[in-house]
Design goal:
alpha/beta; 219 residues; Rossmann fold; 8 helices; 7 strands; 38% helix
Length: 219
């Protein structure tokens, strides 16, 4: 398995990234910093996926974004670029050791007024958020709890809103028929839940480790 969560041939992946608009120097610095100083740097969205998140956010032009799983702040910065004037992004992170780094890069990106960081376990924080408050939600947290997150996030999503779920191919293990670990099983369950939910429509795209793009229906 590719340790960088990419299912593409490395040469093809290099070509795809070279043919995509480059990221800004701040995100390059955050990428380097994460890889040198933070555990599990493969959790970073990275240039290609980050650019996709930015584009999706710009197309949706949300007023309110919710992110579950800040890590070092890369994806939050990318998503916040699509906020409409006066919009806000709320990002939840369970690891307090990352707070200083997150706040540093959010400030460096000039997004202190747009991005709010809350520390704590998302499963504890989500029930207190108002229903149908968010136009766009990005889930990139602990995979074992994906099935628990889904109904909570659907409640928070406005009708017509968008939910982006990361790592839904789980490094190829979800379809190999052999992997039985709890994370793989949880991702399988989540994918089934989305596919069987008549209140949404979705498309699963094989970008990096797979992103499920889910739209909550209006009725």
């Amino acid at each position: 398995m590719n340790e960088d969560f990419s299912l593409l041939d490395p040469a093809l992946e290099a070509y795809v990234e070279a043919s995509t608009s480059p990221v800004e120097p701040l995100l390059e610095a955050l990428d380097r910093d994460t890889h040198v100083n933070v555990l599990c740097p493969r959790m970073l969205s990275g240039a290609y996926q980050g650019k996709l998140l930015e584009f999706l956010s710009r197309m949706i032009s949300p007023s309110r974004i919710l992110e579950i799983g800040t890590y070092t702040g890369y994806s939050a910065i990318c998503l916040a670029k699509g906020l409409r004037p006066g919009g806000r992004l709320l990002t939840l992170e369970h690891n307090p050791e990352l707070e200083e780094r997150i706040r540093h890069y959010i400030k460096a990106a000039g997004l202190e007024e747009q991005v709010e960081l809350r520390l704590g376990e998302a499963l504890d924080l989500l029930p207190d958020l108002p229903a149908e408050a968010f136009d766009l939600i990005f889930l990139d947290a602990d995979k074992a709890n994906y099935p628990r997150y889904y109904p909570l996030l659907k409640r928070l999503l406005k009708p017509g809103g968008w939910l982006l779920i990361d790592n839904v191919l789980w490094n190829g293990k979800v379809w190999d028929g052999h992997s039985k670990d709890k994370d793989t099983e949880a991702v399988r369950v989540l994918n089934r839940m989305v596919g069987e939910d008549e209140g949404v429509e979705n498309v699963l795209i094989p970008v990096r480790d797979g992103i499920n793009i889910v739209r909550k229906l209006l009725v």
